[in-house]
Amino acid sequence: MPSICLILGIIYGFMRYERKIARLTQSPALAGDAKGYKTDLYTGVVILANFIGGFLNVHLDRIASFIIAGFIFKAGGVLFLNAIKILLASLDFAVLDKVKSIVLEESRVGELKSLTGRSSGNYKFYKNNNRLNAITAIPNTKPKIAVCPFPYFLAVGRSSSKEV
Questions:
Q1: What gap in Å lies between CA 74 and CA 66, rounded to an integer?
Q2: What three-state secondary structure class fits 155?
Q3: Most buried residue, 74, 81, 121, 161, by CB count within 10 Å?
Q4: What is the mean pLDDT of residues 9-26?
């Protein structure tokens, strides 16, 4: 039983540390991992209570198994709902039009073939497929314009220089 208490203390320490770092770095991945440790901590407390009940000759196995199953179903449901939110997190046309105007302001962009976007938490991700104008200047000649088609990504977060 002391080893279970030690493990619970370690899990609690990791959870607190990761939550603190997640707040400092504003990382949704670390915040999610800290929530996972929280679920592990609750499960460990239920197992510890079951062991203590066993020493006191109170059989809590069925109750403990239902509580742990509830934690598992809750964690799975939260993960499922977050995945659905990400799939449905498309951006409205007004935001995409603003991004389109920002991309077309760039002199090297010749044509904007496609623009898609989605949001994840506080971040917005945009995928552009552009035709870029690559201008090469040779002395005593007219500039030659070569068109270079390739897709590239533009990620706009909190620290972006252009607000969308």
A1: 12
A2: strand
A3: 121
A4: 91
